[in-house]
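Reference record
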Amino acid sequence: MANKILTTETYHEEIRGRLGVSEDVISDADIDALSVLPIGESRIVKAVPNYAVLTGDDQTYVYAAAVCMVAAILAPSMTARIKKSKKDFDFSFENQVVDWKKYAVQLVDEAYQNIGLISTAEQETIVPVFGVAGPTRAKERRRY
């Protein structure tokens, strides 16, 4: 399956860079898996249906949004991929503790912020929801 948005040769490194890991932690095959890359790109395509005709900065924002979305899909699996600490005879180290689920949410937010920067993106209008209260129970009290 051909990529829709992430068509450069460097997208693997960019996704790993967003997560701060190397190729030995996340391989190219892990990124290109059917449950990762196509899903991430599809989410962006659904949000920006005219992605194919965008140029300049708008195209860059779509690309960055796709990188963030794919990284967000991979982020929750990072706890199982990265060892917390490693000890050997000569050395020991402990990795930084990261809340990967929280980071995944931040990456999704960043993806949608990039989409919001697209000049042709439709801005969502938020309409306040309110209700009208019916008659009070004062009338009911008068009957008794």
Observations:
- The radius of gyration is 23 Å.
